[in-house]
């Protein structure tokens, strides 16, 4: 039987929770002091979409985003994208448009979702509800609010993207 593999890139400023999201989704764990294991490029998880097996491959950026030095290899062959910002980091929100352009330059137009992570810290938010909604609308993306910490909506992000890719 045919197995579909889907390479998904997760971009956004450092500290928004990208590595934690990959660990949560693929390994079911959350640690506050997660440090990337050297040598691990990606993790994967298999799910079923419309009765078909889809292998979701998630690539981590290993902190390179701090230096604006993500290599072309990171983006190569990516079929879907997660644009991530943090509820408590205004800069990460304002950087989303630049991240979208970067991914588009490398990958063209691929199914993309906007993720507002750390929704468990909503009482400390620096981004209003309307601002997040308006950004999603202007980018033409769905907005999904997640808490990797509390495991809220993380699986929905990848199920949504896999479904979009499957339909395309
Ligand atoms: P990255 O730089 O984007 O890969 O971000 P990390 O995954 O390293 O996470 C940065 C920090 O945010 C870590 O201390 C995480 O434990 C924390 N973090 C990640 N997701 C959440 C979340 O949903 N809620 C809260 N409160 N903290 C989170
Ligand atoms: Mg990281």
Topology:
Layout: E1 4-11, H1 18-27, E2 42-49, E3 52-59, H2 72-75, E4 80-86, H3 90-94, H4 96-107, E5 112-117, H5 129-139, E6 142-145, H6 154-167
Parallel strand pairs: 1-3, 1-4, 4-5, 5-6
Antiparallel strand pairs: 2-3
Bound molecules: guanosine-5'-diphosphate and magnesium ion.
Question: How would you portray this structure in words?
Answer:
One of its GO terms (cellular component) is autophagosome. It is a lipid-anchor. This protein has 168 residues and is of the alpha/beta class. The protein is 33% helix and 24% strand. The protein has 6 helices and 6 strands. A 6-stranded mixed beta sheet has the order 2-3-1-4-5-6, sandwiched between helices. A hairpin with a 2-residue loop joins strand 2 and strand 3 (52-59). The longest helix is centred in the last third of the chain and has 14 residues, at 154-167. It is globular. The two termini are 20 Å apart. The structure holds guanosine-5'-diphosphate and magnesium ion (MG). Guanosine-5'-diphosphate (GDP) binds at residues 14-20, 32, 34, 117-118, 120-121, 147-149.
């Amino acid at each position: 039987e045919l197995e579909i593999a889907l390479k998904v890139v997760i971009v956004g400023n450092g500290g928004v929770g990208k590595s934690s999201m990959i660990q949560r989704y693929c390994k079911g764990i959350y640690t506050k002091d997660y440090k990337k294991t050297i040598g691990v490029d990606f993790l994967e998880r298999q799910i079923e979409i419309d009765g078909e097996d889809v292998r979701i491959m998630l690539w981590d950026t290993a902190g390179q985003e701090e230096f604006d030095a993500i290599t072309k290899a990171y983006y190569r062959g990516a079929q879907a994208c997660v644009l991530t910002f943090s509820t408590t980091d205004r800069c990460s929100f304002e950087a989303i448009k630049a991240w979208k352009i970067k991914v588009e330059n490398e990958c063209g137009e691929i199914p993309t979702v906007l993720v507002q992570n750390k929704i468990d810290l909503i009482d400390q938010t620096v981004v209003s509800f309307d601002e997040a909604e308006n950004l999603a609308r202007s980018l033409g993306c769905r907005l999904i609010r997640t808490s990797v910490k509390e495991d809220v909506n993380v699986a929905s992000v990848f199920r949504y993207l896999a479904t979009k890719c499957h339909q395309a």
